[in-house]
Design a protein that fits this description.
alpha+beta; Alpha-Beta Plaits; 4-stranded antiparallel sheet; 3 helices
């Protein structure tokens, strides 16, 4: 399991709602993709122009070769394409053994 983090900076307040709508539609493709194990989009409180998308993939290879070359990527990309220039970071990470016993639930 690999976690991808994508950091966005959407400075135009009017585009933020459109951005969230685009990801609402695009996320349908993530739900259909067998390589995707889950995702969440978080919106900044202190810095409302910031968003972080967290996607859990089965592996880097399954993300880059499976998803990106599969049937779900073209419609996914079509929705988010207007926001690619707003990406500040897009990287894969491995989880470590350091995690909460509650699994992030409060």
């Amino acid at each position: 399991m690999i976690v991808e983090y994508i950091r966005y900076r959407i400075t135009d307040a009017a585009r933020r709602g459109e951005f969230e709508d685009a990801y609402t539609t695009a996320s349908q493709q993530l739900d259909l993709a067998p390589q995707c194990q889950g995702y969440e989009l978080a919106h900044g409180i202190e810095e409302p122009e910031r968003y972080i998308l967290r996607i859990v993939w089965t592996s880097v290879a399954e993300h880059e070769q499976g998803f990106r070359h599969g049937p779900h990527f073209p419609p996914f990309l079509a929705e988010i394409r207007p926001y690619i220039g707003d990406i500040e970071e897009m990287k894969h990470y491995e989880q470590t053994a350091v995690t909460s016993a509650a699994g992030g639930q409060s």
